[in-house]
């Protein structure tokens, strides 16, 4: 089976670990979000790609969910001793090495997709990890604070401000110029199923969907999404702050509507959210199924992935049904 | 007193620590060798500038003579895990931070002299440290080995090969284009005395002297050199291998002749070398004095520095003597 998954950071990476366990022998291509990327100290940092790579490659800090296990922070301390800013981004020494290699390769002229492939040669994540684009994009967040109304890098809002200042707008700078990285559209075209993991619907999945051609390519495929909202709150992270910024409620129903049809054909919601909402969870033409959606460990993540794949298989088998028909599990 | 000193790495840095102790209140400008500089993993490494900065700033690994004290090597291990070359250059984590800051500033457009000043703002070395040039130069060494006759970076010959393969030629690539960094010629013009510490006469002092205008500027000043050769051997390092490459014997006399007159006006030799050599230690017009030249500690380095300054003061006082006159300590 050929599977394509979009992915952000921690939630996406943990889901992917479950997907690998649920679909042994499958060919999985992961299209990673690079809107969170940031240049720090002259080094190119790709938090989401690295979280996927470290998680699937066995190098992740399990407790934290990002960064390297057994990490040290000598370089960061030294940079602070030089008075170098920013000091709010926690790069560890092991992680620094990744950014040094990446930056050296980028400066030598390799595109980010080739660099990512080279880094993955060490980590052997078991999936093909492709950045959404080789073109530079950056998610910026418009906030108003004592310095007035201004746009800050997503990481500054997310990491330094902990999303404590309301996001008035979330903009992917460079989106209009960015093309999908080589292999992205091909992988989607060849896919038997596309899975949207419970990543942030705005700054992870939503960002990838902004890259020209990706949404359109997905619309002709069987796409199953896993709700990142459980019981009316994000499972982790601050997706609610991002959803509020774009005027979307923090409900499984609202996220499904955000993705919309014809993009999504199947939708896994948490049991807590089954039937919740004014009109219940659902959307014309989308088959909805409820499952336990909390990823406690690889096993529970694998169960969710298996449910998503089963739903995708059913949907593919029933292709040709008139649009708008609800499956047995639909409302 | 305004003092200018040229300097390479370990020997120069230790001498400078003595010079600071010997001449409190003096204004010392150090012109640092950058021919050893190397780009590693996309980062600009300036070994000699850093050795001076760390030594005078209290951050040096005292046993090793280079690199940072209490150093760790996590980044280097990780780079090796990625298979990144070279793996023979021992950058520590603390040291990496320096190279990251330097590289970021260089890429932002600051000249190396401004970057060095910024780094020194943290280390407060007590001297003004200026690179010999803001223009990129690199010492390359021509060797013949199983790969044929080829030029390698000085660091590859020095660190990886431990100078075990004879150097057939030593070339400062870029020397013809390089101009002295801002402040270099001005500091020399304003100096009451110029001291050549016991740094490598070929790849440290000799390199600095190749930068257009520096030798000429020094020739009109009172210059006292400290022999790096004691008892017919380098005090440390592999100066003999460098001297052999350029056809110069490893003797205090031969190094003095290499620097030559009118560049050098005074010459400190080790007691072991007093009168050694076919014609004794000396050169027409150069006042020679013998002293213990082993730097066991800051005190012994300070004693050498004091002797050099005393000699410079005497020479300055006797300015107007006809050239070729030997002082009381001469041959």
TrEMBL record, chains A, B:
Pfam families noted in UniProt: CofD
Keywords linked to the UniProt accession: Magnesium, Transferase
Molecular functions per Gene Ontology: LPPG:FO 2-phospho-L-lactate transferase activity; magnesium ion binding
Keyword tRNA processing found: no
Gene3D superfamilies, alphabetized: CofD-like domain (1.10.8.240), CofD-like domains (3.40.50.10680)
Transmembrane regions: none
EC number: 2.7.8.28
Record-given protein name: LPPG:FO 2-phospho-L-lactate transferase
Lineage of producing organism: Bacteria, Bacillati, Actinomycetota, Actinomycetes, Streptosporangiales
């Amino acid at each position: 089976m050929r599977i394509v998954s979009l992915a952000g950071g921690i939630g996406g990476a943990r889901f992917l670990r479950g997907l690998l366990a649920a679909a042994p022998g499958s060919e999985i291509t992961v299209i990673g979000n690079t809107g969170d990327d940031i240049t720090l100290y002259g080094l190119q940092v790709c938090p989401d790609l690295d979280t996927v790579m470290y998680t699937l490659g066995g190098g992740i800090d399990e407790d934290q969910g990002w960064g390297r296990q057994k990490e040290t922070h000598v370089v960061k301390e030294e940079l602070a001793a030089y008075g170098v800013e920013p000091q709010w981004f926690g790069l560890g020494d092991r992680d620094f090495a990744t950014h040094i290699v990446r930056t050296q390769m980028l400066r030598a002229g390799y595109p980010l997709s080739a660099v990512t492939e080279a880094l993955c040669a060490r980590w052997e994540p078991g999936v093909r990890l492709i950045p959404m684009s080789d073109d530079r994009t950056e998610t910026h967040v418009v906030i108003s604070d004592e310095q007035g109304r201004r746009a800050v890098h997503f990481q500054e809002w997310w990491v330094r401000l902990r999303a404590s200042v309301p996001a008035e707008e979330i903009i992917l700078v460079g989106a209009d110029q960015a093309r999908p990285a080589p292999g992205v559209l091909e992988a989607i075209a060849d896919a038997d199923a596309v899975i949207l993991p419970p990543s942030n619907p705005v700054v992870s999945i939503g960002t990838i969907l902004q890259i020209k051609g990706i949404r359109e390519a997905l619309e002709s495929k069987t796409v199953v999404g896993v709700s990142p909202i459980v019981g009316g709150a994000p499972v982790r992270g601050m997706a609610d702050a991002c959803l509020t910024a774009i005027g979307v409620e923090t409900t499984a129903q609202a996220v499904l509507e955000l993705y919309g049809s014809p993009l999504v054909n199947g939708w896994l919601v948490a049991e807590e959210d089954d039937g919740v909402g004014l009109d219940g969870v659902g959307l014309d033409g989308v088959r909805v199924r409820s499952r336990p959606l909390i990823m406690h460990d690889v096993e529970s993540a694998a169960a969710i992935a298996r449910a998503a794949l089963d739903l995708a298989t059913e949907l593919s088998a029933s292709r040709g049904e008139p649009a708008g028909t609800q499956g047995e599990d639909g409302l």
